[in-house]
Amino acid sequence: MGADVFHGVDTTPFGWVDKAIESAIAAGATYADARVCSRRHQRLIAQNGELDSVANTDDVGLGVRALVGSSWGFFATSDLTDTSARRAGQTATETAKASAIVAGPPLRLADVPVAVDHYATPCTEDPFAVALSEKVDLIVAATSTMAAVNGVTVATANLMFWDIDQWFSSSQGHRIHQHLVESGCGMDATAVNGHETQRRSYPQSFGHVEKGGFEVVRRHDLLGHAHQTAQEAVQLLDAPLCPEGEFDLILESSQLALQIHESVGHAVELDRILGWEAAFAGTSFLDLSELGAFRYGSDLMTITADATIPGALATFGYDDEGTPGQCVDIVRDGVWVGVLSGRDSAHLADVQPGGMVRADGYNRLPMVRMTNVGLVPGKDQLDDIIADTRHGVLMATNRSWSIDDRRLNFQFGCEIGWEIVDGKRTRMVRNPTYTGITPTFWRSMDRLAGPEEWKAWGVPNCGKGQPMQVGHTSHPASPARFRNVRIGVSGSADRAGRR
Amino acid sequence: MTHDRSQHRHRSASNSQSPDDVTDVCSAMADDVAELVRDAGAEGNVVVTRTHHGLTRFANSSIHQHVGDDSTTITLSIAVAGRSATASTTTSDLSSVGDLVTRTITAARQQPVDNRWPGPTPQTTNQLAVDDAFDAGTADASPAARADAVRAFVGASGTSTEGQAGIAPFLPSAGQTDRLGARYRVTQATSTTAAGYLDTEATWTSFASTTGHRVASKATRATIDGIHRTVDTSGAAHHTSWQLADLDPATAGIAATTSATWGQRPIDIEPGDWPVVLGPEAVASVIAFLGAYGFNAKAHLDGASFVNLGEACFDPAISLWEDPFDPRAVGLRYDAQGVARQRYPLIDQGVTVNLAHDRRTALRAGVECSTGNALLGAESWGAIPMNPVLRNGTSSLADLVAGVERGLYIARFHYCRVLDPKTQVVTGLTRNGTFLIERGTITTPVTDLRFTQSFVDALAPGRVIGVANDNRYADSEFGPGMVIAPSVSLARWSFTGGASG
Hints:
The complex is a heterodimer.
Chain A: H1 12-26, E1 31-47, E2 50-68, E3 71-77, H2 82-98, E4 116-120, H3 132-147, E5 152-170, E6 175-192, E7 197-202, E8 208-211, H4 215-220, H5 222-238, E9 245-251, H6 253-265, H7 270-273, E10 303-306, E11 327-332, E12 335-336, E13 357-358, E14 367-368, E15 373-375, H8 382-387, E16 391-403, E17 409-421, E18 424-429, E19 433-437, H9 438-443, E20 445-448, E21 455-464, E22 469-477, E23 480-487, H10 492-496
Parallel strand pairs in A: 4-6, 9-16
Antiparallel strand pairs in A: 1-2, 1-5, 2-3, 5-6, 6-7, 6-8, 9-23, 10-11, 10-15, 11-12, 13-14, 16-17, 17-18, 17-19, 19-23, 20-23, 21-22
Helix pairs in contact in A: 1-2, 3-5
Chain B: H1 3-11, H2 19-39, E1 43-59, E2 62-80, E3 83-89, H3 94-109, H4 136-139, H5 143-154, H6 162-165, E4 193-209, E5 214-229, E6 234-241, H7 249-262, E7 272-278, H8 280-294, H9 297-301, E8 320-322, E9 344-348, E10 351-352, H10 359-365, E11 388-390, H11 397-402, E12 406-420, E13 425-438, E14 441-445, E15 450-454, H12 455-458, E16 464-467, E17 472-474, E18 483-485, E19 488-497
Parallel strand pairs in B: 7-12
Antiparallel strand pairs in B: 1-2, 1-4, 2-3, 4-5, 5-6, 7-19, 8-9, 8-11, 9-10, 12-13, 13-14, 13-15, 15-19, 16-19, 17-18
């Protein structure tokens, strides 16, 4: 690879990046890297057959990271000039130096190959080139269809698109340009009675986002799913409450994706394990001394963090430290074998950096982030799993999620459930919830569907860090069964009004 | 207006200028962009926001991330012939902004008519004669100044003593020293490790509408929020003010390390319904949910809010005000639509009396005017109280604890999520300090618990045993500087799981 890889790419921002790095090193940093990130975001929302909002957000700026002793210094500016870039580099180093007032052990950066490269998301249909009128017509029609169902009070639909250009260099010689494109869509119908609200969403409750262009939206066919989505919201109001007790739980793949996100993805973030996020996001129940030996789940549980899955939301060429996107084993046949790491943390777990450090825009310090963390598919089919279940609940589409600061004690609520009796899907149930303890839960997984029902669900709203950074992650999953799970958790007020 | 003049004015925005100069530059920029919008045949509002943020994060008792950010953002909300669109950019050169204006107008022209477009904010909107909550010393705080403060917090490790142990976990704010816990004693100081952050932020916002309405405001905020940890527990402390000098990191550190030390060797208890005394952080989480899902006028208009105006949904001990003019309040004096912030009651002695409106929801609801609660860049979310203050009661925290025969003291909640916005049934966990109260005394640390509880029911008539007189800025898990809350004693809280499930 060489400089010619940038043919056709505007290389002007590399000039600002280089000046920032030079200035940071001149001020005393032992290492520095910098990014110019130009991000274009468009979001359209419709409600009840009318357009609610069209918002275009552009943010562009420079962020420079300087290492001095035990601390990163970071400075960002939206002012893109040579003078401002130099000032940013110098300020980053001076800020890092001030950390010596409360110093820790020196940070050691793991070696990674020095890359000079260009990467671009494969994209069939540029989402920003699609006429706004087409986008508006789509979500207005979808919400009109949902709102027309008797009993629906609010119907919303949204489209979201990102176009990101990033120029990255480091004092070690990295020089990388990436062009990433993300597209997504979602809709939901809400029905309200005097007591409560019920909601159904499609494709999932946060909307679903992938790497790619407008073809992602077309493939999900909002209009074709609008009527059923709305009907189910209304039906839920009169559905019985989810039964309480300990029995089998079958999760469809989007809910299982969030289960992976919360109880595996965050738990294996090395910065959490090391206590670097202890105050806010929390820590992890995992102990590095058990890496390679801890029984995380059943033999069916094999999880990878794979930043190379075509079309998955967290697929990229390089992370924001210049480490290539790659596939890392996290859990193999039920045993914990890997972590999500960066250059400054990998050696503390005696692993190689996994290319998992990313930032939310130019003005945030890159941090360990999930990539496409998900289950390798099994061999079953959902219908067979249901047929093999004597008594259980099939739950779909996340409604609420909560987990403790060590990623151990979780409770999830889903939008909809169906009771399974003697191998058959029977009545619809409302307010389905389940709770558990992470390793106990994963060890109870005894059936896992195969590649035909496997999907990399995009999660565009992962919060972590201070100030809060919103990360885009993805979680491949297929439906699975878990045995003897506590289902139907409700508080005293809900119990009092059970019907 | 000429291109060259504007470029010159825009380039002059930097942090080497005085705070008033920054305001002038932002205001000039807002005027210029509003003129571009008007010249292009559109109408609307322009907001120019400049932020200077410094953040010092520490973990394992050392600073590991130390960051700063200077950014300028221009936000447009425009309409052409009733067709609206919004946009924002961090690029402040006028030619790029001109391109954005053109693109936004083009986008607007392709939309259906927006029946909820309230028009540009009129010039007649009230302008306030209230000083900004802005402190130049906070705006200019250096990384070294923040690091010094962190050193004081971290340095509290091992300072927990018998004398301090009785007060520190429940310090309502810097300098206050209510005494609790006569039976439970820490007899030996424990070394703890610290984690958290101290940040300082200065914000300048200038607003201009195409009708000529112009306002500007600036604000500062400083926060220290951190924990001290032992092997099996942690304790937290939080101070927020609009002035860095108001923070007392050493006292906060002592509170956190003592709570952590107290919390060692926690016991499991059976889940179920328990009387509770909630600390200000836990109460702040409750208030944040009531505001976002209940008093949000858009949620109310959509039928998803619990609020029935005029109804006594809450105990008479509960009075919640939106009060941007509380002397402690952080934040700007105008909202994102250039409307002056207002002081008004949301709950008056248990009765829900008002909703938070922006100009869009005010138009939908047919009420006279916005309450000044528009959020920047989040119109689709609705309007949210930005300075909610839960009024103090007359009791001390010690009185509340003394009144509990057998219950729990909860310092904070963690990871709260709504199960049903209409009933405000929320699940979450306790964190950083859960203690058993027996016969009016805090006796034993307890492992964290999961709850599933309707926040509205928890504060219903007859359920509020007492409200303490210790309200202060408390961190609601959704960020600092959002809620001023006291400790509250409640008859019942529904815990649905323990640490082991």
